[in-house]
Structure formats: C-alpha cells, structure tokens
Amino acid sequence: EKLKNGLTKTRENITGKMNEVLGLAMTIDEDLFEELEEVLITSDVGYETSMELIERLRKKIRLQKVTEVDKVRDVLKEVISEFMEDEEKNFEVKKPTILLIIGVNGVGKTTSIGKLAFKYKNEGKKVILAAADTFRAAAIDQLEVWAKRAEVDIVRHQEGSDPAAVVYDALEAFKARNADVLLCDTAGRLHNKKNLMNELEKIRRVIDREFGDANIYSLLVLDGTSGQNAVIQAKEFQKVAQLDGIILTKLDGTAKGGVVLSIKESLKIPVVYIGVGEAIEDLQDFDAKAFADALI
Ligand code: GDP
User: Fold this and answer.
1) 249, 251, 285, 286, best to mutate for ligand 1 pocket (most atoms within 8 Å of CB)
2) ipTM of the complex model
3) Ligand 1 centroid to residue 262 C-alpha, Å
4) Which of 143, 148, 212, 254 is deepest in the core (most CB within 10 A)?
5) CA of 263 relative to ligand 1 center, distance in Å
6) Which Pfam families match (predicted)?
7) Top mutation candidate among 110, 118, 259, 278 for ligand 1, by most atoms within 8 Å of CB
8) In the structure, which protein residues have their CB atom closer than 6 angstroms to any atom of ligand 1?
C-alpha cells in the first residue's frame, strides 16, 4: 500500500501517457511499440532500457499470440516484473554485516542510515552506527539524531578527524558488544575522486584487517527525484568504488520512478532498498514484482 502510494506520481505519469497511446491504437503494430518505447523513455526509464523492455514486449506478444490492444498493458507489466527479477540476489544482512553507505550530500544518506538502523533493530539485530563522514559537524550531529530515534549506539569523533579511525573504533565497539550490523556513514564528495577513492579504500583496509570475515557491502544512496542524473552519478561512483547495491530515495515525491529500471540495466547492480517518505519506517526492501505492480 505504502509502495503504491509512494509511486503515485510515477504511475500517473507512465499510465497517463500509456493510456493515451493504448486508447488511440487500433491494432498491435510497430507504431504502437514505438510509441510505447517513447512513453518509457520520457518516464526516465532510459533509452537503452526502454529499447530492451519493448524488445521483450514484442517477443512476449508474439509468443503469447496477443492480438487485443487491451492486453498489452498486462504483458508489459509481466515484462517489467521479469526484467527486474532476473538479477542475482547477492545481498543478505546476517551477522556480522558491515555496510558502507556512500552518497553525495542531500540525497538522503543520513535519513536512509537511520531508517536502516531502525529496520534492523526491529528485526532483533544489534546495530551500531559509525559517523565516518567527518567532513561536516552538522552531518555527524544529524546522524546522532537518527541514532537516538532508532535507539542504537553511535561511534563518533570530532569533525575533520580521520574516517578510518572512526571506523576502527566502531569495529572495536562492534566486536566488544557482539553486534550484528555496523552501518558506516561515509563520504561522498565526488568532486575530488582521488581523495574519495583513497578514503574509501583506507576504510576497506581497516575493515579487512580488523574484521575480514564479516559480510561487507557498499551501498550507494541515490536521489530518485533526479531521474536519469542519478544513473550518471552512480557511474561516477563506480569509477572510485566497488558497489554492491543501491538505495534509491524519495520515490514518493517524484514522477521519475522509472529510473529504477534504468539503474538495473545500466549499472548492473541491484536496487536493494527504496525510500518512500521522510519518516523512520519509510524504507522498503525492493521487491521487483510489487514494484512492477505499483508502477503500471
Ligand atoms: P544527506 O545529506 O544525504 O544525508 O541527506 P538527508 O538524509 O539529510 O536528507 C535530505 C532530505 O531528503 C531531508 O529533508 C530528508 O527528509 C529527505 N528525504 C530522505 N529520504 C527521503 C524519502 O525517501 N522521501 C522523501 N520524501 N524525502 C526524503
């Protein structure tokens, strides 16, 4: 329900355009496929991804011998659902898991960490936060606010201190308290790629040395309202860090939710969580089928 509500703007955008196209079409022909492709492209699905989806739609319609225009919507829904599902699930949060959360300012990184802490805690896990984005004091304070809300511990140093040192201390606390999940807030200053790469690598080295047998994942937080720009940003991050998954935020406030499809195709990494509101419980596991259902 929350997902359906969250995706209202995206759905209205896509289905509005699609209804127009389907309403006018008399038969299923090449013109119709081209117009549907246009609908997807203008809904932030991305050029390559839209082509791929329409190609799959063509095939399915041929195989299932669909002739009625009315049925096209359901077939497209199937196509989207399958498209999102045929992706390996390599993400599992079991003890001990260390998550490095990366992302530029303003995308919803702090909020997402707070939501994740709350979610894991409610699953019975012991969670610790590491404030390893030490560039701005306000960011550290903001993370502390979320730690209080989620009622989890936080390890923080002063503004400007070495992020790897924060992670080191957090790992000590993690071991001492026998915790399940460590969520590390890390930097995302893309304008200095060399620094960013060094910083993230140094953090990885500390983790490998101190806790090499933990499950370590790097998750990139992207702002769903930025549509195709989110994909471009992710590609920049892929140049400096090995990414395991995406947290896509603010899907509730945007008509650009089609970008989820594009991320999968262009980046080859899964969307694992989506943000659908500002409150602490407004984070969901990404579910391909539910998403396809809510989208169209
Ligand atoms: P950061 O700078 O990346 O850490 O970003 P913040 O976590 O401070 O979030 C920036 C703004 O985005 C805040 O006003 C958040 O409330 C808002 N925000 C974050 N996630 C979501 C979401 O899923 N939906 C909506 N509507 N707003 C969000």
Assistant:
1) 249
2) 0.99
3) 22
4) 143
5) 20
6) SRP54 (PF00448), SRP54_N (PF02881)
7) 278
8) 103, 105-111, 249-250, 252-253, 275-278, 282
To the question of whether residue 16 is assigned a binding role by annotation, the answer is: no
pLDDT band at 228 (very low <50, low <70, confident <90, very high): very high
Mean per-residue pLDDT, 272-294: 91
**pLDDT tens, position by position, 12-64:** 999 899 999 999 999 999 999 999 999 999 999 999 999 999 999 999 999 99
Of residues 82 and 157, more confidence is placed in: 157
- Between the CA of 131 and the centroid of ligand 1 the distance, in Å, is 17
- CA 287/CA 270 separation, integer angstroms: 11
